[in-house]
Design goal:
The structure holds 2 protein chains of 2 kinds.
Chain A lengths: L2 E14 L2 E14 L3 E5 L6 H8 L7 E6 L2 E2 L5 H10 E4 L13 H11 L4 H14 L16 H13 L5 E5 L7 H18 L2 E6 L2 H7 L2 E6 L2 E7 H6 L4 H9 L49 E4 L2 E3 L5
Parallel strand pairs in A: 3-8, 3-9, 6-7, 7-8
Antiparallel strand pairs in A: 1-2, 1-4, 4-5, 9-10, 10-12, 11-12
Chain B lengths: L3 E14 L2 E14 L3 E5 L6 H9 L7 E10 L2 E2 L5 H7 L4 E4 L13 H12 L4 H14 L16 H13 L5 E5 L7 H18 L2 E6 L2 H7 L2 E6 L2 E7 H6 L4 H9 L47 E2 L5 E2 L14
Parallel strand pairs in B: 3-8, 3-9, 6-7, 7-8
Antiparallel strand pairs in B: 1-2, 1-4, 4-5, 9-10, 10-12, 11-12
The chains are: A alpha/beta, B alpha/beta.
């Protein structure tokens, strides 16, 4: 398996009142072709910013992004447009990411027209795409508001697939959907992955979804990676105290299971001008004085299992 | 047998809007016993929140119209009560926690004052005494009382939800309705809030109605569950009956659709199709066209039937009956 995307020490800071907001603060990982790479974390941990920085919706502050062996960290607008032929994005909210004044078929055709395809061909291709994502022909002339959330997300998927990308960054694609519809969309994404040999980055806060769909999972906390491992390994042997707490916080539907819950105290700290040391130290019951002064590094504790913690 | 404190009988609510008549709640009946937590679970548009608003007397009229039924609280029919009586009830004997902690607080009033406001409204106490009581409420939900004089924007989502819980519990209500209280929160914060709600329920003995779409939250918090689909209760029973002896195909479908719960490897088992249009609900089983177990018998009006031990199911061919364990 070859590496399709490599991210090295990527940083994205935003200038805000009161200093610099460290949204993404030194993230490194690589993704193999055909893989689904899950990124989980709670709101404000920087997972969406990371996805958006990779696809150049935001300019990276520093670090490196290497896509198909080419450094794409700092590229021109023209090169960026090139990039979008290979890399696409599915947004979280199917209610606000579709133009309410365009019909379904126009929304799906738009990237094709921008890419220079003739109108007639684009229309043909858009019809095929609708069929591929399971949208009936009768919706071609509908507007987004006439469709339910599941169908709208299908439009978002069809639009992302229009230019036949190899790599798709999915930012919470099913979070706004009910479980019965969520399952339909997840199945569709798995089917398309098999058929079109897609590579996914799957960003979500929902641990059961990430467990289901990902090959490997990276857990983020305040702009940094705390743990990264294969899905099975991460869920059965979580090592980082934050990962452990996160996994135990999900209420199980098994009413006989005695859940050992680790309730975290306190809340996520501010990402604006963060203090040195482990970002999680203030909420961690194992933290020592060292945790509050030195930055822990991501260390490989088992083949493929990386943890950033002094106390492992 | 503990006493019934709230009884909803044959409640039907519709919204008369431009597009037609939206039948949001259809002939819903349930009781809440003292000290218990009843869960209402269902997907978007099932009518869960409309039920809650009916109990609070907060339905937006118009377009909402209650077409039948009554809601009895302490022997009084809330639906027929006047606004003055409702005002003595709301925030005092019945309280509600809303889904969105970000928009449920007044942004231009100190959080502490928002708590003492409720206390002064329902109790004859001085301003200083109310402040003292409000500070106690803040401490009860784990917020230091020196944050009394701060505005909501200084609080994070979890903290805001704590303030809202403090407001709801300030007057020691008999019934607390929590509408998706943790949906907008992160899981670690959700765990804190659920823990807090459990502790407070134990301490104060409040009865709860917990509305959520999250079956995990139901499993953790509830004694009994009602599953709502297209404005109807399709299954109701104890937590064990509904979770372990699932009888309605819709409930079964909800469980099967959850990731991490499927036995068949990577593919999930979604429920096909989507919920029927609430402006033109079918007369027969409303779930029939999505059901894997559909037969000719489904083509009729289906009643909620007791399949044993008070386990109610609205299906002509329930997947199991009480006493016969399905697995």
């Amino acid at each position: 398996m070859s590496v399709i995307l490599k991210v090295e020490n990527l940083k994205k800071y935003f200038d805000v009142q009161g200093g610099k907001l460290h949204a993404v603060d030194g993230i490194s990982f690589s993704i193999n072709e055909g893989e689904t790479f899950g990124i989980v974390g709670e709101s404000g941990c920087g997972k969406s910013t990371l996805g958006r920085t990779i696809i150049h919706l935001y300019q990276p502050t520093s670090g490196k992004i290497i896509f198909e062996n080419k450094d794409i960290t700092f590229i021109s607008k023209k090169e960026c447009r090139e990039l979008l032929r290979k890399m696409q994005f599915i947004f979280q909210d199917p209610y606000s990411s579709l133009n309410p004044r365009m019909t379904v078929i126009d929304i799906i055709m738009e990237p094709l027209l921008i890419d220079g395809m003739k109108r007639k061909d684009a229309r043909q291709r858009a019809s095929e795409l609708m069929e591929m994502v399971g949208l009936s022909k009768m919706f071609e002339t509908s507007y987004p508001h006439e469709l339910d959330g599941g169908r709208r997300q299908r439009i978002g998927i069809a639009r992302a697939l229009a230019l036949e990308p190899k790599f798709i960054i999915c930012d919470e694609p099913v979070s706004a959907l009910d479980v019965s519809i969520q399952a339909q969309i997840l199945n569709l994404m798995l089917e398309l992955q098999e058929k079109l040999k897609l590579t996914y980055i799957f960003i979500t806060h929902d641990l059961s979804v990430v467990k289901h769909i990902s090959d490997r999972v990276m857990v983020m906390y305040l702009g940094q990676t705390v743990e990264l491992a294969e899905t099975q390994e991460l869920f059965s042997n979580p090592v980082h105290p934050y990962t452990k707490a996160l996994l135990s916080a999900v209420p199980s539907i098994d009413i006989d299971e005695q859940q050992k819950r680790e309730i975290l105290h306190g809340e996520i700290a501010s990402p604006i001008n963060p203090q040195p040391g482990c970002r999680f130290a203030a909420r961690c019951k194992y933290s020592t004085s060292r945790c509050k002064t030195d930055d822990p590094q991501l260390v490989e504790i088992k083949p493929g299992h990386f943890v950033s913690c002094y106390n492992v | 047998m503990s006493e019934v404190i709230l009884s909803v009988k044959n409640l039907s609510v519709e919204y008369r809007v431009e597009e037609g008549i939206v039948k949001a709640v259809n002939d819903v009946s349930f009781d809440v016993k003292s000290g218990e937590t009843l869960g209402l679970v269902g997907e978007t548009g099932a009518g869960k929140t409309t039920i809650a608003l009916s109990i609070m007397g907060l339905l937006p009229v118009p377009p909402a119209v209650v077409t039948q039924g009554e809601i009895l609280f302490e022997g009084e029919n809330i639906l027929a009560a006047n606004e003055k009586y409702l005002r003595t009830l709301r925030g005092n004997k019945i309280s509600m926690i809303f889904q969105d902690p970000m928009s449920a607080l007044n942004p231009s009033t100190y959080v502490g004052d928002q708590i003492s406001e409720v206390i002064m409204l329902h109790n004859k106490v001085s301003k200083d005494k109310a402040r003292e009581m409000a500070e106690e409420c803040l401490e009860m939900v784990g917020i230091p009382k020196n944050r009394y004089a701060e505005y909501p924007h200084k609080f994070s989502g979890g903290m805001k939800q704590r303030v809202i819980i403090a407001i709801a519990l300030a007057c020691n209500p008999n019934l607390l309705i929590a509408d998706e209280p943790t949906t907008a929160l992160d899981v670690t914060i959700q765990a804190q809030i659920l823990e807090l709600m459990e502790q407070l329920k134990e301490k104060k003995g409040t009865s709860n109605i917990l509305i959520t779409h999250d079956l995990g939250v139901i499993a953790k918090m509830c004694d009994r569950v009602a599953v709502i689909y297209a404005g109807e209760i399709v299954e109701m029973g104890t937590l064990r009956q509904v979770f372990k002896n699932t009888a309605h195909p819709y409930t079964k479908g909800l469980f099967d659709a959850l990731p991490g719960n499927s036995l068949s490897g990577k593919r999930l088992k979604p429920i096909k199709g989507s919920m029927p249009d609430p402006t033109s609900l079918p007369e027969n089983c409303k779930f029939a066209n999505r059901c894997f177990n559909k037969s000719d018998k489904c083509d009729q009006r289906i009643k909620l039937v007791d399949i044993g031990d008070g386990h109610l199911v609205r299906c002509v061919s329930p997947l199991c009956s009480e006493g016969v364990k399905s697995h």
